[in-house]
Please model this.
Amino acid sequence: MNLEELEREVTRLEDIQEIEDLQQKYGYYMDTGYRQEIVELFSENTESVEIESTGLFLGKEGATRWYLVDDLLPEGMTTVPSWIAVRILMSQDAITIDPSGTTAKGRWNTWLAEAMTVGGVPRQQWVQGYYENEYIKENGRWYFKKLHWNVTFFTSFEAGWLRIPLLGLLNRKDMDAPSPHFHPYPSGYQLPYSFKHPVTGK
Amino acid sequence: MATLEELQARITRLEDIKQIKKLQHIYGYYQDYGQWQKIVDLFSDNGPSVEEADLGVYKGKEGIKRYFIDLLGGGPNKPRRPGILSIMFQLQGVVTVDPSGKTAQGRWYGMGMEAKPTVSLHEGELRQTWIHGVYENDYIKEDGKWKFKKLYFNLTFRTPFEDGWLKVPVVGQHGPSAEVPPDAPPTAYLPYPLGYHVPFSFKHPISGK
Model:
């Protein structure tokens, strides 16, 4: 291996590390309400944000709209009370860098512990879902190009996914289109993989 | 094109991140089984500290031993009480290596399932609980090996399996031990629903702030 090939290999590993950090920092910012910081993680060339049943939000403008309107704010209140909280636990990343080195895709598993109002009532929830995200490298830095979080179940702490797969719908009036991939348990929907089979390559 | 030295430095940084993550993961496996001496040996000899939940700060290698072996372990080589369960997933590690390559910081989520007594650390009825919190740890590279310089776990909730964080955010936390007292009081014991956020050790990837 010559120096040029070695540098390409090192860059690929650095890219994977940087994307992993980007995604996980996004998670910590989400959980602590750093919404403006999140908007800055999105490319000017953002395609879309799709989260649960909130709808499809298009472009950087749509992403900005999604994050700067706090969907956790209960009706009639101006600040989110501290008991309303979300913890997104991210794990199991599979990141694929495009051979061009300028775009990438990543799948993640997530487990969430939440407390918020659902239908005006304080509730605590267990939530599971997957990310299938796209990233883009611009000016030497990785950004989100497309963020898609696909929920499997959104159940009350007390009941569980078999009894209540979906405690409530998180609809947003300001969406650009309904969520194209919202098919929660027990639909049997399988979110397509961005990665290839490591052995067969398919 | 990068020089060989530059590439070596870049590879070293990636290796350091991998090693630190492995250190934290291994710490998690040891803590699951209560292998306290093994955990003590993960710490630097040079001014380490540990602080978890509301138990206060233990300083120096002596403090590390007192915390893990005397307090959590109930004494040297004391067999674990039957029925104790302590599983703590070490998740979402964001590790920042200092440009010197000698120190680093890492933020993690700890999420787990426990069966522990809640009256004291070692006695009383076992309760099954869900636990969550944030780690913000310091690491140091000594003799080519990464070690803990500071282990800090900030508790979000520790709730009975039957109740949940909304109804019972915390059980079984009664402040610093009188028998094995810490060197300093807890720095920020502010569990759910107080809304406390542990400051980030990492920088924003775009703005650098």
Notes: Chain A has a mean pLDDT of 96. Chain A has three helices and six strands. The helical segments of chain A are 3-32, 35-39, 59-68. Chain A touches chain B through 38 residues (CB under 8 Å).
